[in-house]
Amino acid sequence: MTKGIVIIGAGHAGVQAAASLREEGFSGPVTLVGDENELPYHKPPLSKAFLKDAQTKPQVLRAEAFYTGADIGLRFGERVAAIDKAARQLEFEDGGNLGFDRLILATGSRPRLLPLAGADLAGVFSLRTVADARAIRDHAAAAQNVVVLGGGFIGLEIAATLAAGGRKVTVIEAQERLLGRAVAPTISLHVAGRLAATGIRLLMRTTVERLDGENGRVIAVTTSAGEHIPADMVLVGIGAVANTGLAEAAGLTIANGIRVDPQMRTSIPEILAIGDAANYRHWHSGGDVRLESVQNATDQAKLAARTLTGHDEPYTSVPWFWSDIGDMKLQMVGLSTASDRTVLAGEAADNRFSVFHYSGGRLVAIESVNRPADHMLGRKMIAAGFSPTPEQAAGGDLKDLFVRWQQAQMESAACPQS
Known about the structure:
By secondary structure, the protein is of the alpha/beta class. 27% of the residues lie in helices and 28% in strands. It has a five-stranded parallel β-sheet with strand order 3-2-1-7-19. The protein has a five-stranded parallel β-sheet with strand order 9-16-10-11-12. Helix 1 runs parallel beside helix 8.
């Protein structure tokens, strides 16, 4: 390769792809392109620790010396306008271009826009980048009444953080429960109860009519029921949209993201896609998914690097996620979309419990609140294909069961039946 490999997107996926290419022995040119003028940074802390202290700085993914030492070219603060797949080059908004032999799209996702009057008022924010987080932190310093639109992970993390700092916080969620598409009802109810106990007002099954402003700044949120909620700050967390514009314009197959095969190749084999923007057939659930998590971005990046260095392995990582909301560490492993039975282990009253999800008797997911051991063991069990019975899951002591199952599997493999 004379032009080498170019990666569009300098988030978790893009940076890991660049690092993994070098780890896999690729010696050709590697260029990382990002539209922010920042060294790539960890995003999860932006909704939590970063908002608490004006002196907190972003946690960089890799020190600048890493990129120099690994001979990874950096083109930050540049936005790609188009992919010319015939000429194999990128065209930049400033008029420049960059050739490539292979291309990795790690374009991520962006916050879903609020389709309401007043959404463009000052004091209305979404969170995706460190620039967003800085703006939220600066505005929150003088805010008293905060309204969070959306009861998902980002919205609740911010709500808990700002409430802990003394603000009056209201969360408005259109669905009947918080985290409705992410966790079991038991956990939704638990999270709601803990947040309400800290003084956060929760409005479920509630929609918003408009955002009201004065002199160009937001002053209130009016619900569809007519309630007028004072707000000198509004946080919008109503989901994310995959950044597929470049891929779609280049003629790649799009289906709720950039469609990829098990090796992360798009419909144009010379172009791969990874991370938040990639949609693929999941090995465990059998369904098509687009996952927004650091784990997924990192693992897909590692596999993409192996694909581009001559390997042909499918993507079989077990998905896992986490969220810190107030005094609750939520950890999730597996996908619960096909779940037809749940089992509770531990006591919700202790703020330490897990929900085991089953589909036809097979363990497919575990959701934990302050039970990290269940989460870590769950990652191993699901990867290995071990399913404790629902009764065993509820009773605990799964580690010993799993170890004995592993030993039996090893013995069976060593002594195959004739």
